[in-house]
Amino acid sequence: MNVPFLDLKAQYQRIKEEIDQAISEVVSDQHFILGPKVEALEEAIADYSSVRYGIGVASGSDALTLSLMAVDIGAGDEVITTPFTFFATAGSISKVGAVPVFVDIDPRTYNLDPTRIQERITPQTKAIIPVHLFGQSADMTPIKELARDNNLRIIEDAAQAIGSDYIKDSVPPQRVGSIGDVGCFSFYPSKNLGGFGDGGMVTTNDEDLARKLKLLRVHGATAKYHYQCIGINSRLDALQAAILLVKFRYLEEWTGKRRENAIYYDQLFEEMPVQALGIETPTVQYNNRHIYNQYVIRVPQRNKLMKFLAQEGIGTDVYYPLPLHLQECYRDLRYEEGDFPNAEKAARETLALPIYPELTKNQQEYVVAKIGEFYHSFIA
Ligand SMILES: *Cc1c(COP(=O)(O)O)cnc(C)c1O
Q1: Do the domain assignments include residue 223?
Q2: Is the CB of 200 under 6 A from ligand 1?
């Protein structure tokens, strides 16, 4: 049996007619940058994320960079974030001239450990970027308290978490992207809402920030050839917006399928002696609505398992094999191996399994059976 890690072709085949129609409309129109399609998507995503404003930009990475620029973070500033994330989270901080300050993760959720943040706050600290990794919200209540007490901005990296809710205690669910000052989303093809190329969005409830973000994405221009501030060129294409508007109609259904697939994996693993084998399935904190951009398990002999599964026709991936504090480009920050043991351990032990909506029960059974087979042969 063949189980690809991701099957975007299957998704496209199902909605081909609508997508092709949307593309041909834009092509006939010849209006390619921003415009009504982008505005419609901004409204849809803002509404879906429980905020007043959505600002379409060229990528999730740019969403982060523009957000940092919008809250005036630059040279001399420090921004606290996790070392266990996609590079753009930290890269955007460096790109605006600030310094990323890493804090270790909670080993169960892989999200920023809020109990370790206070000790890293200095007079230079200006913001925290929690990442809602794999599709589950970071633990936002303590992060918000720290931000309030220390006058810090919160920029949510929600690139993997569109439609995810933070649900702690009896507090009403909070949608990611609406909890901090701004939320950053990505429409990279492998995200739950993925375009046919790069794309991103910033969400906010703050009218001034929304206005500033709209200026910053067009070089700071208030009118043609008149610049109020120095921005960058980072606009969302009409083609991407048109495609994303079609896909958005299916997002809830697809997210539901991902969540069902996750439950089914959980059940299948429960039938195995996972504890004896040292396998750990994903932990959902509180009553969070996890949207499973990735279903990540922790396993012994990760690299050998990955190779074995590949031989059996099963695609898997590793997010992320090297934590950011150990990256070559951050050597001058003088972090060392052992600084963030939870992140380092996660980088060695975690494996993402196929979880996309089109995945069948048969395929999932095959994946888990093969994992069982690997450990039996390995132990025997
Ligand atoms: C995908 C991703 C980004 C960057 O998004 P792009 O659209 O690829 O630039 C940022 N942060 C995280 C956590 C991501 O997964």
Answers
A1: yes
A2: yes
65 lines ligand 1 (CB under 6 A): no
CATH number at residue 20: 3.40.640.10
CB-based contacts of 80: which residues, under 8 Å, 6+ apart? Answer: 101, 102, 103, 117, 120, 121, 125, 127, 128, 129, 152
Does residue 51 line the site of ligand 1, with CB under 6 A? no
Q: Which residues pair with 296 in a beta bridge?
A: 352
Ligand 1 atom 7: residue of nearest CA: 60
When divided into structural domains, the chain yields a total of 2
* One domain for residues 217 and 363: no
Summarised one tens digit per residue, pLDDT across range 215-254 is: 999 999 999 999 999 999 999 999 999 999 999 999 999 9
Question: Of 248, 275, 302, which one is at a domain's C-terminal end?
Answer: 248
Asked whether residue 216 falls in the same domain as residue 348, the answer is no
Query: Is pLDDT of 380 > 70?
Result: no
Helix (H), strand (E), coil (C) string for 277-318: HCCECCCCCCCCECCCCCEEEECCCHHHHHHHHHHCCECCEC
Residue range(s) defining the domain that contains residue 320: 251-379
Ligand 1, atom 5: closest residue by C-alpha: 60
Is 194 near ligand 1, meaning CB less than 6 Å away? Answer: no
Instruction: Say if ligand 1 is within 6 A of residue 134 CB.
Output: no
Report whether residue 324 contacts ligand 1, using a CB cutoff of 6 Å.
no
Which ligand 1 atom is at minimum distance from the Cα of 85?
A: 13
pTM of the model: 0.98
Tens-digit pLDDT profile for residues 103-133: 999 999 999 999 999 999 999 999 999 999 9
Q: Chain centroid to CA 239: how far?
A: 22
